[in-house]
Amino acid sequence: MKLFKSAVCAVALAAFATSASARDLVMNANTSDPAQKLAMENLIAEFEAAYPEIDVKFNLYDHEAFKVAMRNFLVSDAPDLITWNAGNRMKVFVDLGLFEDVSDVWEAEGLYEKMPAVVGASSVDGKQYGVPYAYYAWGFYYRKDLFEQAGITETPTTWEEFKAVGEQLNAAGITPVTIGTKNLWPAAGWFDFLNLRVNGVEFHAELMDGKVAYTDPRVRAVFEKWGELVEADFYIENHPAYSFQEALPFMNQGNAAMYLLAPFIVSMFPEDVRAQVEWFPFPIIDSDVGIYEDAPTDSFHIPVNAKNKEDARLFLAFAAQADVQTRTAATLDMLPPNVNASVKDDRFAQGGFAQLSKADGIMQFFDRDTDPALAKVAMQGFQEFLQNPDRLDRILEQIEAERARIYGAL
């Protein structure tokens, strides 16, 4: 309780005031977008209702200001909780000794079993350093009416089936895939999935950490698969001229059938087109490689220098509960990592949730998982490869030179 129900002596009141002050829980957050802000405010209100003796002090930053301030406040004036991202963005602060090991929360709450897909994304050297509260799935959004027009009756689950679908679409005069690479990052999604499907998550993580050369034969194998699609005319022409939004009309107007992207694309479809759109996951290339997905993940972390770690751990445990994650993810229009949570009655959300719940592991996204400077050079290379696959050797050498500059020679 935050107030006594009966009169007490002044000494007791003073003791209570000291106790109440000690139960302040300070959270710094970068959730400044309207839906993010509402979701966090609702979550905090639920937590305070469950733990009325704790008062959450909520400090909200816009995204860019948070990035600038984060390293300073983690060192000099640490809050008790922060919102951030899983994966390499988390690992940067773990390596600096600024994030608390919260493996005890995972063990006490059974999160290894309840949130299996995000175990790896939240861990460094076998220890957990955060608790995810929402994520979203990448996959193929496709027009079923265009598939039917091309005589395609089933969505592809294997690489050979996927290439056959592209062949049928091209034969029907429909470009298989739209993409806008002016932003660079849409091409990175393709690289992520191809590498995860060809080489698996451990190799992908090592590559993102700068521990593998981009001239490695295993990386070349990824581009060989990618090149099969380029040679088969899978992509719209002149895609570097289009942003990811500007590439969408090719699908809306029926000129292209598929788009590999995240759920935020759904709201961009006109209503009549959306009625025709369905979703399927990236196909399997090697059945001996596990099912790994790109799923950018938002998470809570406790700074090492936090003052109230006990109540911060209570908050992590509360935020990980299935019913809490159901409500938080729904407000965010994202997915709950807890497999016992539920998602809204939406075919895209349901498909993404089912896919991520059975995933063997996830990565974040190329420009979240590796050094930003390297990501820029690499994504420029991906864009160039899609236009000129014959330049692969030079492209890989350029990316490798940047990797070596940042991470050192191997």
CATH topology tier name of the largest domain: D-Maltodextrin-Binding Protein, domain 2
Low-confidence stretches: 1-22
| Total discrete domains | 2
Number of helices: 18
The best one-word shape is: globular
Give the strand order, joined by hyphens, for the main sheet.
2-1-3-12-6
Overall pLDDT score: 91
Strand content: 5-15%
CATH homologous superfamily grouping of the largest domain: Periplasmic binding protein-like II
Molecular structure report:
This protein is α/β, with parallel strands linked by helices and 410 residues long. The protein has 2 domains: 183 residues, 3-Layer(aba) Sandwich (D-Maltodextrin-Binding Protein, domain 2), CATH 3.40.190; 193 residues, Periplasmic binding protein-like II (D-Maltodextrin-Binding Protein, domain 2), CATH 3.40.190. 49% of the residues lie in helices and 13% in strands. It contains 18 helices and 13 strands. The strands form 4 sheets. It has a 5-stranded mixed β-sheet with strand order 2-1-3-12-6, with helices on both faces. Strands 8-9-7-10 form a 4-stranded mixed β-sheet. A two-stranded antiparallel sheet has the order 4-5. Strand 1, helix 2 and strand 2 form a beta-alpha-beta unit. Helix 9 packs antiparallel against helix 10, helix 9 packs across helix 17 and helix 17 runs antiparallel to helix 18. 44% of the residues are buried. The N terminus is likely disordered.
